[in-house]
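Problem: given the chain below (289 residues), write out its structure.
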Amino acid sequence: MGTKDDVREFLISRRAHVTPQEVGLPTYGEDRRVPGLRREEVAELAGVSLDYYIRLERGTVRGASDSVLNAIARALRLNDLERDHLFRLVQGGPAAPITRPGDPAPTAVRSSVRRVLDNMAVPAVVYDAAHDIVAANEMGRALYHFHFDTDGQPNIARFIFLDPRARAFYGDWSEACRMTAAMLRLEAGRDPLNEELTAIIGELSTRSPQFRQDWARHEVYEHRSGEKTFNHPDLGPIHVTFDGFAMPGEDGLSIVTYSAEPGTPDADRLALLPAWAAAQAGASGPVAP
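Solution.
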């Protein structure tokens, strides 16, 4: 369950993104002092009293019913991820935590998953809720070369927000930052007792002004499918489609694959990744498994 501040800031941020026109409310040309909807407008649209909504937005209403939360989600035009996030913040959520309190985060994948990764014909990486990369196949390591060229455990979020090379590596660095912060917020709502996740959020909040700005948006996002561009240091820009999958039997881990349309320059560059990795290994010694 989220803190009172989490509930308040999430609801305030969401109603700030909805205009009266979007929900069919008249404005009569008035000078509005707040962006988006007022509290009383959200209460009216949700069919609850203003006093009740104010107390809910302050995080002081425990055990709000599903029907009330669904009504508020509709009033604020929340998408499915945002709706689930609201439920988790207010009443603990419909889903069980990704890990049990006190359980250490997985640090590797089982051998059968390792074999599947190694036999994939596309780049693939496995990461946990805190964005630690816990496994990758050869093509995945070659694509994410910079992420592995760091001290300690490779971490996608730490690289994006703290490594100056990230601005050039990601075709749209600002979007990568925004989506990464939104993914971390989604995971924090799902599993607020995850110590590794809390630690990386705390580190980024302290060290990265960009993360503080994106975190303050209170957006949530799940890495399912989409497109992005990586600017590989030697092979050039590679535009790929990514697909993310939860891993049954590996709680808290997700696998992401990257592919390109056959016959395109992007597919040709992906196909060069194994040769590039071999050349790197020959120049600097064996690459760690």
